Amino acid sequence: MTDRYQSFTSSPVGQLFVKNLGLPNPVELDRYTPGTPLVDGTVVVGGAGRLVDGVVASLDGLGIASTREPAEGAKFKGIVFDATGIGSPEELIALQKFFTPLMRSLLPCTHVLVLGTNPTQTATSDERIAQRALEGFTRSLGKEIGKGSTVNLAYVAPGAESTLDSTLAFFLSPKSAYVSGQVARLGATGTKKAGKVTDVEKPLAGKVAIVTGASRGIGEQIARVLHRDGATVLGIDVPQAASELLTLMNELDGDHLTLDITGKDAPQRIAHHVKEKFGAVDIVVHNAGITRDKKLANMAEDRWSSVIAVNLTAPERISRELLDQGLINKNGRIIGVSSIAGIAGNVGQTNYAASKAGVIGMVDALAGELKNDITINAVAPGFIITQMTAAVPFATREVGQRMNAMSQGGLPVDVAEAISWYASPGSSAVNGNVVRVCGQMMLGA
Fold first, then answer.
1. Contact (CB, 8 A) for 209 and 423
2. Which of 64, 92, 267, 393 is most buried (most C-beta within 10 Å)?
3. Are 164 and 228 contained in the same domain?
4. What residues have CB less than 8 Å from 50, skipping those under 6 apart?
5. Does residue 371 share a domain with residue 319?
6. Per-residue confidence at 428, pLDDT binned at 50, 70, 90?
7. Mind listing the pLDDT tens digit for each residue in 248-268?
8. Catalytic residue, candidates 155, 178, 352, 422
9. Distance between CA 187 and CA 229 in Å, rounded?
10. Is 352 one of the catalytic residues?
């Protein structure tokens, strides 16, 4: 879908209006293209914590150029700052001293990543206070950095220092084009080791991935990106979407299954298909979802029940069945699709928001009990441009697209890239996370 406002503001006349009226000025975002470098430029590495030396080594292994001593006048495409050494509020001045001189040396669509220690895992109260302060810093910088750039924070648990590769590759590259102001936690729950990635271009080679609601929209892009990264995809959708699903899966050399995921025997049918065709799977993406919007005063019972059944109950039942039958391989991934509505709420969507907040609850509930290095995480998309959002009234659509730090809507591929990061074998320490893909929407945390 074309963003007509962005097309207008990129014209000479549009730029005149932007300048004189102070209108939002969305920048065309860099997005990843297979075969191109993860970072098209140099990353500045700073800080004096326990991670900085490992970061330099990781960047080198990923083929990303970095420097500890930025040359005067040079321009940069990324920043990594190791803030794990900040142990008191007074020491937060290190952020200002490092970042201020660099702010005018950044190229468009620069990606900034601050590394810290989870406040609950710090040694002193002063350190806990200082590390929690990093969230306010990164979220504020994300809103002022501009030019299509992003700022994110990763808390790395003690003992998880060697698990950074996949997270650096995601947050420093165009794969995270529409992810900003977010906090990722590595090693906070479960394993503190990274699985082996033998091919950076195809990190999911040899893996089997289930994607529900795969025939179109966000689900289609999830299937395409997982296939791009090497996975064999089993696409699942309702019988009404069978033709689209079959066409896509044939294109991706994948497999397909048509059923209603809310059916009483749906989890067992999926498990049987997996066992017969693949033996087991490595990745389960619960993307299928519906809306049945009405204000609660006018909400019929079937509108409420159908949304909860598709968006929340079915993912929980399918996950439990696959886990109970041992059909998710060691170092497997369960990935839910929540929504900004589940975090900030939305008028006319009490049913939808409840279901999507419930997906976050499912992540919280399972993260600590999964065995065999299986992880569970979720993405929470904001305003993503799809055929469904194209039908939203113009004024509502414009508000949704502009009220974020990027001043534009995201694309389905942005959600898919975040899911592929979760799915990577190198993301074993990324467990129990909910990351918003919303361009740092002004509402919600």
1. yes
2. 64
3. no
4. 82, 84, 85, 158, 161
5. yes
6. very high
7. 999 999 999 999 999 999 999
8. 352
9. 24
10. yes
pLDDT in tens, 339-350: 999 999 989 999
Taking a C-beta distance cutoff of 8 angstroms, is the pair 412, 386 a contact? yes
Kindly state whether residue 63 falls inside one of the protein's structural domains: yes
Same domain, 279 and 321: yes
Nearest-angstrom CA–CA distance, 49 and 444? 30
Structural domain includes residue 8: no
Q: How far is 120 from 127, CA to CA, in rounded Å?
A: 10
4's torsion region: left (phi>0), alpha (psi -120 to 50) or beta?
Answer: alpha
Q: Tell me how many domains the chain contains.
A: 2
Other Cβ atoms less than 10 A from the Cβ of 211: the count is: 34
Beta bridge partners of residue 83, listed in sequence order: none
**Radius of gyration over alpha carbons of the chain, in Å?**
22
Residue 248 CB neighbours (<10 A): 24
d(CA 11, CA 7): 7
Domain end among 121, 156, 186: 186
Which tokens belong to 112? 């900034």
The residue whose two tokens read 């990543």 is 113
Crossing angle of helices 217-228 and 412-423, rounded to 10°: 50
